[in-house]
Amino acid sequence: MSLGNIHFLGVARKDADRAVLMTSYNEASEIDDEAIVRMVEQPELQLAPSTHYSFEIAGLSWCVYGDDRGRVYILIAQVDYPSRCSHSCLEELERTFIAKAV
Predict the structure, then answer these.
(1) Residue 90, CB half-sphere, CA atoms under 13 Å: how many?
(2) Distances from the Cα of 60 to the Cαs of 15, 31, 42, 43, 70, in angstroms?
(3) Whole-prediction pTM value?
(4) Per residue in 46-64, pLDDT tens?
(5) CA 54, CA 39: separation in Å to the nearest integer?
(6) β-bridge partners, 29
């Protein structure tokens, strides 16, 4: 069980029918990385670039953000964690990830 608000933070890449978890932080390994990949691989998951999506699964808040290159930024937190903080965190993750990838 996590002692903090954020349980998982990661970046995945989604191609036509396959997803790869590129990097992640997983608090005490409580979130299954393969479950993240399976979620990103779902054909119904169509993310408009630069749009935040939030939903709740199993008592945790998921915030997902996609870019125009097929990358998916994912944050899983306590339900009461403010969405504005999740959104800011994912935008900062995107900036940092892109800066280090270039």
Answers:
(1) 28
(2) 26, 11, 19, 22, 24
(3) 0.87
(4) 888 889 999 998 899 999 9
(5) 14
(6) none
